[in-house]
Amino acid sequence: MFSLERVLDLPLVWHGLIGTAIFLYVVLDGFDLGVGILFPFAPSETCRNRMMNSVAPFWDGNETWLVLGGGGLLAAFPLAYSVLMPALYLPVILMLLGLIFRGVAFEFRFKAEGRSRALWDRAFHVGSLTAAFMQGAILGAAVKGIRVEGRAFAGGPLDWLNAYSVMVGIALVCGYALLGATWVVMKTDGITRDWARKAARSAVCGVGLFLLAVTVWMPILSERARILWFSLPNALFLAPLPLGAGLLLLLVWRDLRSGREVRPFLASLGVFASAYLGLGITLWPWLVPYEITFRQAAASPESQSALLVGTVFLLPLILGYMAYVHWVFRGKTSEEPAY
Amino acid sequence: MALHRSATRDRGPPPFGMGVVSGVVLSFQFGTNWSVFSDRAGNVLGPLLGYEVLTAFFLEASFLGVMLFGWNRVGPRTHYAATLIVAAGTLISAFWILSANSWMHTPRGFRVGEGGLLYPENWLKVVFNPSFPYRFVHMVVAAYLTTAFVAAGIGAFYLWRGRHERHARVMLGMAMIMAVFVAPLQVLFGDLHGLNTLEHQPAKVSAMEGIWETRRGAPLKLVGWPDEKAEATLYAVEIPKLSSLILTHSWDGEVKGLKEWPREERPPVAWVFWGFRVMVGLGFLMAFTGAAGALLFLAGRLFNTRWFQYLCMAMTPAGFVAVLAGWVVTEVGRQPYMIHGVMRTSEAASPVPAGSIAFSLAAFLFVYVFVFGAGSYYILRLIGKGPASTEPPYGAHGLKKPPLVLSGTGDRGGRDV
After folding, report:
1. Which chain A residues are within 8 Å of B350, Cβ to Cβ?
2. What is the pTM of this model?
3. Peptide bond into A285 cis (omega under 30)
4. Is the dihedral of CA B27, B29, B35, B38 positive or negative?
5. Does the residue A339 lie in any domain?
6. What are the residue ranges spanned by the domains of chain B?
7. Strands, E assignment, chain A
8. B261: which of A190, B157, B202, B350 is 20 to 30 A away, CA to CA?
9. What's the complex ipTM?
10. What CATH code is carried by the domain that includes residue A55?
11. A325 vs B378: CB contact, 8 Å cut-off?
12. B309-361 confidence digits (pLDDT tens)
């Protein structure tokens, strides 16, 4: 049967592809979840309409990266998928419920009036907040490690909940707020943009604080992480990542003060990229920390090959037409409610 | 088209978001609730679901934005193209998800390896497994019919109230063209699908028929109550020999009864039996509505016959109910198996405590009832408002008239009242 096993290191290729899909999800849905997190704090109804309109054409495509993350994990690493999902059962379910509420709120709020519109505004905010927090908690729980026996999760339903995962949850909420605020700075003008600038500055402080806290806490939590990040010569090679994240945060701060509108968003993406890369290096080579590696979890080479053949052509195509959609909706968002 | 334009711009779209969010949920629930199934069948089903996301989900989700919000940003042709792409995306999506589902009914092209793990042997046999073509055609046609009857119901409602008559005639006319030709075809497709099931999952068909004893010249039970303890269908109203004729195309053909299988190999009979009757009953009602519509059209009374308007309004949800009933038949009928003949449903579940499952079930029930309730409310309000009357009925996208209307209702439906 057809297989690319001899020519390619399939598990490695798929590890990279799934990692990329999840990263794209984090930054893309990150900015529209961030808009939801900031939503009730906007100064006026008009501002809220503009914020909503600025993400309305995109959220749907953005969320599809999460479907690819889930479906791709099932296809390429079924063992990891079937251990992680039961282990993270409650946060995954709560995240999905949050995503449902915020997804329908997009459409219903433009059809509703008066009190029921306020209800959907709240659903949009709480849904976004819940989804963001649970994604952080999932990450925190994974970093702390998952109990496995045989080919199945062997822990309890609340294993995921602890001080560390709660902190990572709040940290991700701050991070998404930063993406959301800088996105709004880029896509709107007037009062909305000026308010978003202030919101972005608060978010920068929060993100800086939490990045520091995570960096200090992780080595205390895990000896592996300490040896990896704080012993020579590794520390020298890895130092550019935290330093780069710090410098980019400073750049966001300065650009917000000097009135730049596009670069704060791009630099925030850079902050996420360095944090994500750092996390990837810490967790390498585990898919289910610290029990199952990406090689152990890999689907049969025939399965990985079959999906890879199409992915090679489809992924660039998808990125192409997603870029086209962004080009169609380029520039500042109009005030008129679009739904 | 004005109807489409008014649906997506002037009054707001039907809630696409409900479909989007339930799609996100699906890609996780294989793992949260059926992790053993995901682990063992992932090698085979994973790539199918992966291709669904890559070829369909992204296409749909990305161009939906252009379709809903792009009116002022792109030209009419590009907008029309975006709409077609969204439609194509949904069809491709149906292809993959129904292929994966069909494989669970008629698994082919795989081998069982160590520890019960399944491995692909032949992708063509996996994707185009024996029940897939039948299920695909049956389901896609069902989706079109469902939409047609929603349009017919709304059109009939407007005609009954004497509002938006020009649009209402197009809606009802197009829906009846669909109903008169496609509903009888759907009965035929359903029959072919049933014969395919008889070949590969005979116990399901015996449950659909409520037949317990294997016999020649089996009667068709119109109604009755399948009692699993007594192993009999009680209070049955029967037509002699018809079941044999339908299933074997011979008056005296042998039909297998449920007693051929041990109790633990039989599906829950009453669900399958009644789900099947609801689906088939509604299918025939739809075909009848189409035929009545055609006769009324020939008599020149399609748009002003009061009882027909009531019938069409009553039939608005018929497609949804029939589709749900059909899924009950096929999925409950597959029990006790998750993958027919390969893996039992009881083996497939996640090692998650019952409390967590109960919580998620209750939460999803609550949220879906709430969200779909609100969605239905807004759709009904949208219908109450009707299409924007200032718009010309045709002409957007450079089309002079909707092509289908020309054949049946062009002379009457297009004229203003």
Report:
1. 82, 85-86, 89
2. 0.89
3. yes
4. negative
5. no
6. 130-349
7. 148-149, 152-153, 286-288, 292-293
8. B350
9. 0.90
10. 1.20.1630
11. no
12. 999 999 999 999 999 999 999 999 999 999 999 999 999 999 999 999 999 99
